[in-house]
Design goal:
Elements (H helix, E strand, L loop, with lengths): L1 H29 L2 H9 L6 H9 L4 H13 L6 H9 L4 H13 L6 H9 L4 H9 L2 E4 L3 E4 L4 E13 L10 H17 L4 H6 L2 H8 L9 E16 H63 L4 H21 L11
Antiparallel strand pairs: 1-3, 2-3, 3-4
């Protein structure tokens, strides 16, 4: 009997130990004790309940806690719940915290709300803080512009910019800066009377473009614009004049050809009319002998009158022959 009771007591003890071991295993599985202890000794206390809640919500507990510890060590007063919310919204918690630490060290006014908004907007908030502390240089592509004298100038500029934290959300990016710089260069060179003036004073481009306030509405503040290179390109004015002269030449040739064709047509028309008139004259001359014969037959003229008329016609023919009236003009090949 005593053996049976002893066996039962051993079974109960084993069951109790198994339950305790199971409870301990579940406890350590749900509660990241190591992270809780690490936060505790770092001065960034996080309750076990919050840690369990983060784990149940499938949040990367270690990343959030380590970011919170880094922020606390850097002297930032933030709530770990805000970091949880930002992670669940799809943000980069580490990048936001590192940006806040960098901004705090550089005495740049950057709040947690602003950093979260910048990160969720798709911009690199940490890089923005770095650019705000250490300005970056944007190099434009080669920009072609034409002065008033028709000479093309090809310029390349280097723009030194600093990130404007307040305008990062909704502000235009680097592409807008480059486009505006290109527009300013084209306008400045185009307003110059001669390309030589621009070559002598390339800094005039920088001063004019910088004075236009091209960084308005962008996420950057332009600190300086430097002309890195400027070369002389094509003589666009001369090319345009050549093209215009060629066009005028073609128009003149077309007009001359049209006039020549009209003259040829008029000449051919006059020849046709002359031939018609000659045919009518020949036809009329063919009726003269008939008329004379009828007049002789009717007794309207006498034989002597006919001979006198023949003499007059012969005399007229001789005079025309001497004067050259009857000579036909020589044909010329056109």
């Amino acid at each position: 009997m005593n053996l049976i009771l002893a066996a039962q007591n051993v079974g109960v003890i084993i069951a109790i130990v198994a339950v305790l071991l199971l409870f301990i295993a579940v406890f350590f599985a749900l509660v990241p004790v190591s992270l809780w202890f690490l936060a505790l000794v770092s001065g960034a206390r996080v309750s076990m309940g919050r840690l369990v809640g983060m784990k149940l919500r499938k949040i990367k507990v270690r990343m959030v806690v380590e970011a919170y510890i880094s922020a606390t060590k850097a002297g930032l007063d933030i709530d770990v719940a805000e970091l949880e919310t930002h992670y669940q919204a799809g943000g980069d918690v580490l990048k936001v915290v590192n940006a806040l630490i960098s901004a705090h060290s550089a005495n740049i006014a950057l709040t947690l709300g602003t950093a979260k908004a910048i990160d969720l907007a798709g911009r690199d908030v940490l890089n923005a803080v770095k650019v705000s502390v250490n300005p970056k240089v944007i190099e434009t592509p080669i920009i072609a512009a034409i002065a008033k004298d028709g000479i093309e100038l090809r310029a390349k500029a280097r723009v030194t910019v600093r990130a404007n934290i307040a305008r990062l959300v909704g502000g235009a990016g680097e592409d807008t800066i480059i486009a505006r710089i290109g527009e300013g260069i084209v306008t400045t060179v185009g307003s110059a009377s001669s390309h030589k003036d621009v070559l002598e004073n390339p800094d005039s481009i920088s001063k004019t473009v910088l004075a236009k306030g091209l960084d308005a509405g962008t996420a950057f503040e332009i600190l300086s614009i430097d002309i890195a290179d400027i070369d002389v390109g094509r003589n666009i004015g001369a090319q345009l004049q050549m093209d215009q002269a060629e066009a005028d030449k073609r128009i003149a040739q077309a007009t001359a050809e049209e006039r020549r064709a009209l003259a040829v047509a008029q000449e051919q028309e006059m020849r046709a009319k002359t031939q018609e008139m000659r045919a009518e004259v020949v036809k009329a001359e063919a009726e003269v002998p008939k008329a004379i014969a009828a007049a002789l037959k009717a007794g309207n003229i006498g034989v002597m009158d006919y001979y006198n008329m023949e003499n007059v016609m012969a005399d007229t023919k001789m005079r025309n022959s001497i004067s050259g009236v009857d000579k036909k003009p020589e044909k010329t090949n056109k």
